[in-house]
Structure formats: C-alpha cells, structure tokens
Amino acid sequence: xxxxxxRVAVLVLEGAKPLDVGxxxxxxxxxxxxxxxxxxxxxxxxxxxxxxxxAYHVADGLEALEHVxxxxxxxxxxxxxxxxxxxxxEALVAAHHRGARLAAISTGAFALAATGLLDGRKATxxxxxxxxxxxxxxxxxxxxxxxxxxxxxxxxxxxxxxxxDLCLHLVRRDHGVGLSNxxxxxxxxxxxxxxxxxxxxxxxxxxxxxxxxxxxxxWALAHLxxxxxxxxxxxxxxxxxxxxxxxxxxxxxYTPMQWVLRARVDLARELLERTDLGVEQVADRVGLGTGANxxxxxxxxxxxxxxxxRHTFSAPEA
Length: 318
What we know:
Strand order of the largest sheet: 2-1-5-6-10-9
Distance between the termini: 15 Å
Structural class: alpha/beta
Oligomer: single chain
Shape: globular
Radius of gyration: 21 Å
Order of helices and strands: EHEEEEHEHEHEEEHHHHHHHHH
Strand content: 5-15%
Largest sheet: 6 strands, mixed
C-alpha cells in the first residue's frame, strides 16, 4: 500500500516576495519521485497582489490549511507596518493546534509571531528586519546571526536563499540525507548549510580566498576516508592553519574539524540509507574508523544509533 504523501501548503499573503513563494513550491514539488504534495493558497481564492510587480492567482483559500502537515508562509513586503489579516492568524493557530508544523521564509516570520506561537521561542528573519521583529514582538527571542531556526513544529529562516536551506533541512528531517541531496542536486544548490551559519560574513573576504576555501571543502569531501587534519586542510587552501581556522568559522559556522565530522556523519547517513554495508564498513568508508566511533557520533549529533537510523530511512529512492 502506497504511503500517504506529506501535504504542504504555501500561504501567499499580500505583498508576497516571488522567490520566497517559489522556494517551498519548488523544493517540495508534487512529482512522482517526491513524498510531498504542494498546494498554494491565500487568505481567499483568487488574485493576490505580490511584491516586485508580480501577482499570484491561487485556487484555494484558508480552508486548505485544514488538511495539511506543513504550512509555509513566504516573506512579504512592509511586515513591520502591515499586520496579517485576523483570519490568517486564526487559521495558522488552528492548523498548529491540529498538529501542523509552521515554517516561515524571511519576513513571513512576522505572520508567525502575530499568532503568539513564537512567544518564548527562538526565531529569525531577514537581517534587515530583525530589530523590527524584536521590537514588535518582545517575547520572541530573535537571533539575527543564523540562517534558520528549528523549534520543532515552528521554523523560521532568514532571507530568501536561506529558505532553501530551511526546506532542505526539513527534507533531511523527514526522509533522510539521501533525498535531501537528491533535491539539492535538482536545484543546483548547496546540499547543506548549517542553520547556525551567520547570515552574512562580518567583514569582506577576498574572493580568491573564498574560492580556495570552496575548493578545499570539495577536496575534503572527496577524501573523508583519509586522515584529515587542520594542517592538511590549511595546506590545501594555501593559507596558514590559524588563518584557515578563523575564516572557516566565519564562512560556515563550524570549526574545520567540526565540519569534517558533520560531513563524515552525513556521508554515513547516506550509506546507511542507500547501501547494505555493515556499520563497521560504513565507519571505515567515512573515516570514523570503528563502528563504536560511528555509534558515538550518531548518538551525540543525531540522538540515535546507526541501526535505528537505517530502520527509519532505509527505503531506496524511486
């Protein structure tokens, strides 16, 4: 019997930003290979005036939120001076009470904050609006230095591009790293950026240095089964270990060795999902040495064991 697809609603409000609307619709696209189906709705069926000279014709109104598992609220113009309609706020609260998770891209966080559901929780939005969000909703803990925030059933992201990171994060959470990487390849997007990564680099980084760091990360991903040290990574980047370490943290939100560990765990996840290799073999393939070491890092980072993870995400990709 076919498994029911996860139902996603994209709630388009007046002034909606085109890229913010398109990201969840594209990531969770309704297609045979995807375990999702997407509906685009508004406060009412019909024409919704968007930002940047565009408009959207939506077939469904707020009743669409009554039967979905996830609701996305894309960003919209003038969020600090435009309150979402009361009916929208009520529908979001009702959807959440029914068990739906709510996610916002960029200034869509203002609509979630208007529900009161973010009170006492951490959230983010586009860096240009973080102060306005904090001023309007002082009970929300606003973090301006992250790409996205996952509070379980309430999620928020920074500017448009970080909406891709949030969506891929949810695919990973729902169906594992294999499907997330498949979607990232389809979008020609980075498969994973940490939610804790800064929204913008604090100071200008010379372009050649940035290019070298990207090449170094690609090189490291191709050599995860080998011993990787800070010195080896810095040597590949052609900078000192001290410079490499400092700039790497600014660029990714991780120390170099934390990043290598996460990359090894992610590769292990994909091997557990897509192959029948034993735990010891997987540990060897990803450079973690032993099954015991792999189990230790899985428990610490993912809160589960390799065997339990495989049982959860073992279905092969269609």
